[in-house]
Amino acid sequence: MRVLSGIQPSGRLHIGNYFGAMRQHLRMQAEHECFYFIADYHALTSNPAPQAVAEYTLAVAMDYLALGLDIEKTVFWRQSDMPEVTELTWLLSCVTPMGLLQKCVSYKDKVAQGLSPNHGLFAYPVLQAADILIFQSDLVPVGADQKQHIEVTRDIALRFNNTYGGEVFKIPADHIIESVAVVPGIDGRKMSKSYGNTIEIFEPEKSVRSKIMKIVTDSTPVEAPKNPDTCNVFALLKLFATPEELAQWDQRYRAGGMGYGEAKKRLAELVIEHFKPYRQKRAELENNPGAVDAMLKKGAERARAVAAPTLLAARQAVGLGARR
Ligand code: ADP
Ligand code: TRP
Questions:
Q1: Fewer Cβ in 10 A, N or C end of the chain?
Q2: pLDDT over 90 for what percent of the chain?
Q3: Which domain range does residue 132 map to?
């Protein structure tokens, strides 16, 4: 099956991104033909500082590569190195009803959070549809928040196929990532780059420890029994501890006599251990941004070759024909 997914370079990747998306992306490489890209065109919709776009794009690439993205197997590139996708966006825009985009909740949410209601933000799902359709993707692994965008993609693909006859685009299925419940941040809200509450995958060990010690907990005294099900520290332990160890923590919480500080210290050790094997590779990549850039460029060449026939078919379908 052909699998496609994108991730925005809107900040440093954190353990919420890892358990909520990256880990599944990396695992799918074993069985599928995977296409993964860094969605820098999409990131522009929130008007980031220009230096941030380039910096975070490379950092996201380094994180994926360090954690095991295999560029021999998987096609991995930077969205903006493939301008075909913006051309297809236009062709798709012309069959996309306004009402379809007006229904999208992510636009409304982002504007409610204070982002500028620009046209790019509104048209974001059409660009996403072009990303997906240009590769004739079968499966699009995404978090639950992106499900509506996949439905919009299917709708646009059907409209295009019906309008122009024939089967220019394959209708993709989504593949909602079997979600580890939402990973909480150190303040107890969803861990998110936009809340400043993240633990980054590759942040320095000292800083991992100090952030974990700051995780918000309730004020149950040490002696008293505690409820693991409502505890942010326990929610994170669930991701990193073995089932046996987790069962022990569960008991200790419920028995009382354990302070949150103790659980936090163990959590910090587990988090650091978990990503340790990848740190050296990450550091090597960090020291060689030129090589990472070159890998992305090569990936873009492969991606463009795969996308070219679909773009040509779409151009022909609407009457533009091949480019002269
Ligand atoms: P952020 O909220 O940090 O900006 P994105 O919206 O860019 O993260 O999400 C990228 C991917 O990571 C998405 O597939 C999303 O579902 C997943 N993800 C982000 N935050 C979390 C979280 N706290 N828990 C689980 N998955 C998450
Ligand atoms: N919108 C996705 C997100 O914010 C990123 C993305 C862009 C994407 N294009 C895509 C995901 C195509 C899957 C397929 O997480």
A1: C
A2: 90
A3: 2-182+289-318
**Number of domains, the chain:** 2
* Closest ligand (CA of 176): 1
Ligand 2: centre distance to CA 105 (Å): 15
> Does residue 76 lie within any of the structural domains?
yes
Q: Which of these ranges, 150-154, 174-178, 243-247, 318-322, has the smallest mean pLDDT? A: 174-178
Buried b (16+ CB within 10 A) or exposed e, 30-39: eebbbbbbbb
Residues 278 and 310 in one domain: no
Encode pLDDT of 113-158 as tens digits.
898 999 999 999 999 999 999 999 999 998 888 899 999 999 999 9
Residues 296, 277 within the same domain: no
Residue 191 lies in a domain: no
Substitution candidate for ligand 1 out of 17, 45, 195 with most atoms within 8 A of CB: 17
* Predicted confidence (pLDDT) at residue 179 exceeds the cutoff of 80: no
More confident residue, 323 or 32: 32
